[in-house]
């Protein structure tokens, strides 16, 4: 018997806790299944001073004491209304937390809950008006009252990408309604080097190799959850590599028009040179000008007071950038600046593209 069952942590009991009460029953069941239980006795130290909170902590039974210094302490009781929410804000890192009585905590992965909420709330609630039924369109059985665990696991993996988390909520439902599911076979070429870009792809299952040149040189292996093909769609350049399936699998693909409308446009913001100069004159946040041209281009026509990272090196240089800075991509980069903005937006940087 699992601890969830032993302590009656069920869909019915957890539906009274926030924000779990916003989940459909099918997603709530999955969140509960993937949660964990911590049982404690009176006198147990649950959190030492300086602790880090890696989960959402729900106090389902018992009382705990939160002590800060010699003269400051507070009791948190599972029977009080405040315990219908995660107690994280009640147990700050500068406090020691000790159990007054026996009881138990329920721990929920915040990323899993966030993804479950995003998908649950972005899907139509009315079964009769759910996503259109199309043999090629990916639609979750959960919208029809059933639960497809394989689909849910893929969706939670997919929604983990900042690429999707940054999207306006209104885009999510329409976006996933436009994806087509495609069964593929080992050896099948999905993208051919030097072809025009037509689709953006997500790898649901199976694996694929990325190869360049002739004879072909393998440069990477793609696993489930990977996505590819966006650069040719952003910049209207030809494909820079081929992608070939290494085993049978399944892809989700999004056509160019839908990609531009639902994925690219919401992520890339354009500002004029005049707007940039006005902002620079009275900045409300840290700003930096970023040039993503090649080194030879930059050295030929250098830009003073400008950070330079060639586009080819941008992904490997993300750790060197500061997320508290708003980056403005120079217009000299042309459509390459659009690609750079797309990459930076995927990784939750604040970014603008300068355009006259």
Structure description:
The chain has 356 residues and is an alpha+beta fold. The protein has 3 domains: 3-109, Sandwich (Jelly Rolls); 123-262, Jelly Rolls (Sandwich), CATH 2.60.120; 268-354, Rhodanese-like domain (Oxidized Rhodanese, domain 1, 3-Layer(aba) Sandwich). Helices cover 29% and strands 27% of the residues. It is built from 13 helices and 20 strands. It has a 5-stranded parallel β-sheet. Strands 2-6-4-5 form a 4-stranded antiparallel β-sheet, with no helix packed on it. A hairpin with a 4-residue loop joins strand 11 and strand 12. The longest helix has 13 residues, at 110-122. The protein is globular and about 70 Å long. It starts with a helix and ends with a strand. Residues 122-145 have low confidence and may be disordered. Pfam families: cNMP_binding. It comes from Alkalimarinus alittae. Residues 283-354 form the Rhodanese domain. This is Cyclic nucleotide-binding domain-containing protein.
